Amino acid sequence: MWAAFRAVFAAIIADRAAALLLFGAPILYAVLYPSAYSGELVVDAPVVVVDLDRSAASRDLVRRAAAVSQVQLVASLASPREVQDWLAADKASAAIIIPEGYGRAIAQGRSGEVMLAGSGAHLLRSSTALSGIGAALASTAREAAFEQARAAGPAAPPALALITRPLFNTREGYGAAVFPGVAFIIVHQSLLLGLALLAGTAREKLGAPLSVTAAQFAGLWLAAGTIAMAQVCWFVGFVFWWQDYPRGAAPLWQVLMGASLFVAATAALVLLLASLFRTRERPLQLGLGISLPLFFLSGLTWPAAATPEPVVWFARLFPTTPGLEVMVGLNQMGGTLTDHAGALVNLALLAAVFGAVAFWRWTSPQRPPAPFGPDAA
Amino acid sequence: MNFAGRFGASFRREAAFLARNPWDLALLTWLPLVLCALIAWQLSGGVVRDLPVALVDAERSALSRDIAIRIEGAPGLRLAFTVTDMGEAEALARAGTVEAIVLVPAEATQRAFAGRGQIMLYVNAAHSAASSTIQRDMAAIIAAANAREAVEQIAAVSQPGTVRPAPLKVSSVIAFNAPASQEQQLVSLLHPALLHLLFMLAVVSAFGRELRDATVAEWRPDGAALAGKAALYVLAFMAWGAGVTAYLAGFRGWALASAPVLLMAGYFAMFTAYAGVSLLLVGLTRCMSQSLSLTGLYAGASFAFAGAIFPVDQASGFAKVWAEVLPFTHFARLLALNWITGAPAAVAAAPLLPLALIALVTAVPGVWLYMRAAQRPQDWGKR
């Protein structure tokens, strides 16, 4: 068993492409991927304003909206028609339109009307800009209420205020919402591509299906699991801290327990898939493309509640789906193992089933031919 | 042979190879189909619905019942639990059973009469799409509850004449995507994100394979032959681009704001640019497996850098530069202008220029390096 375990590492060190995939990729991606999200929050979304009222009240409103950190006023336009052009050319994410009569309406104790328009081309950026402007308008509304009160007595304040508090990702950064999940997709893909490449190469050199003993198979699984666990520790233990993502919410032993099951299931699937390849490059050709669908299937950004039922079930065939639920649930949200019992059972089942099929493929003396090879011709 | 002849011969040679090798053919046939269909199916709901919410009813009043009914009625929300204890609700949120907690504190009604009522919303910000839907729906619920309170409750106990409309009335609209559906935005970008990665894998394989198997000796490529080989893949993936556009614009009804000609020109320019990058990678490494690994690094994270969903304006300088050298970023800009906002063609066509530039800057050294490798047997057979 230990001989097989050591042989895996010897093979990785001897093969530059495998070493790059298994050890280089997690390091490169830990730098590359979070850099895309290093802005974390929407700041200075370009906003245009049309002030048709040109009163003291409307200028005051524009000034307040411009002071919001999510907003940068880029132009003051003459007509709503121009707004359409600016939004269409994607030069602005949102627009504030103040119709004529706004100041007079407030002075007379009626409602002053304001129109906000966000661009559908960038839903996140425009809705953040709109909510920032909304906060500025609320403060304008309070002052306007004061002004009106001097003339007409106090108005009824809104009875209820909604106070929103984000949980688990308290700064609501988008890197912090995405990368803690993406990290496990990287672990999965790195292990799959790296080990399948090695297996394909070995199979090619041997010219016959690889066949190992039960003890050797255990050594392979252990080696795959060790590499995956090292990667998980690298991301959970270092990268999340380095990037200051939410982390460490559950006790360490529970995170390690969850990680072990994710690693066991991933290693089992990887060994099974690795046994199918007969050519060194084939796993890279066919496997790289599935990263994005794997991430979406995991349900981190697109909730399972909004996903068709058959897709939800299909997604559970991949260790990344329950794996992300468990790891984000424990590490970011501070749930317990019992909270995620369903996902843990899912992982255990995948580990057992994939492990059994992989064991049969790696150890049976007469195996069906591997499908992912060059054809006879 | 003239240019057209060598181009055609190379094209037919590649087609014959694919016909013999189903796993290479898979990259441009059923693999894009399965992956694109999966994404399309998953996001076909378009709008996030029925997210589970826990209501902590510490008051048990008409107000809390009113809010409970409104949560049930909101399209994005589902009242999964009503509890009286905040601790219980927190456990549900930690377990991921609910996406948000709505707390109606004790004495909320009384405070509301004084105009100081507070409803707390705790939302799981680790799930971004879900949390923004919940915040939007809850804001609408509270606004509606306020309107009712103002009429029924406060007016009854206040002096006549003091109940006036709020001093500011704000109406907001989302231009170009009125239902604020994420299906159009996400699927229209995810499909080309998948296609360009598969395209690059296929082209890198096609060029890398000739060096690996030393079949360049028999192929003896020149510029026309290289173009003919790449043309097969550009053509196949253009067909996929047209297919996924037809699905979303025709079948799903997210009609294009402008003519589809420009979008297809964008696909063509993007694939040409990625073909140039592919040739450059193979020419530089002269090794198929290394080129494929680098493809993963180069094209694997394009979606994050494109700035279409999460803006990259505030990201680090490196991220901004990296985004600019990825053809997908420029394609995503063109797609937003052409499909969603319907900008004038002159504006929407602007991203074609950087795409052509990337194609030129990568293809020229790429062709030179590849042709050199094709003549040096010591560069063949590297694994």
Strand content of chain B: 5-15%
Rg over alpha carbons of chain B: 28 Å
Span between termini of chain B: 33 Å
What share of the residues of chain A lie within helices? Answer: 55-70%
Total separate domains of chain A = 2
Mean pLDDT of chain A: 84
Largest chain interface and its two residue counts? A-B, 122 and 136 residues
| Major sheet description of chain B | 4 strands, mixed
What count of helical segments of chain A does DSSP give? 14
Strand order of the largest sheet of chain B: 2-1-3-4
Total strand segments of chain B: 5
Give start-end ranges of low-pLDDT stretches of chain B: none
* Structural class by secondary-structure content of chain A: alpha/beta
What ranges of chain A have pLDDT less than 50 throughout 5 or more consecutive residues? Answer: none
Q: Helix and strand string of chain A, N-terminal first? A: HHEHEHEHEHEHHHHHHHH
Number of domain units of chain B:
2
Q: Give me the oligomer status.
A: heterodimer
Any overview of this molecule?
The complex is a heterodimer of chains A (377) and B (383). With 377 residues, chain A is an alpha/beta fold. Chain A has 14 helices and five strands. Chain A has helices at 2-14, 16-36, 56-66, 80-88, 102-107, 123-152, 174-206, 214-242, 252-274, 282-287, 291-297, 309-315, 320-332, 341-363; strands spanning 45-51, 71-77, 94-98, 112-119, 160-167. A four-stranded mixed β-sheet of chain A has the order 2-1-3-4, sandwiched between helices. In chain A, helix 9 runs parallel beside helix 14. With 383 residues, chain B is α/β, with parallel strands linked by helices. Chain B folds into two domains: 16-44 and 182-379, no CATH class; 48-157, abc type-2 transporter like fold (3-Layer(aba) Sandwich), CATH 3.40.1710.10. Helix content of chain B is 65%, strand content 9%. Chain B is built from 17 helices and five strands. Chain B has a four-stranded mixed β-sheet, with helices on both faces. The mean pLDDT of chain B is 87. The chains are: A alpha/beta (377), B alpha/beta (383). The interface between A and B is large, with 122 and 136 residues.
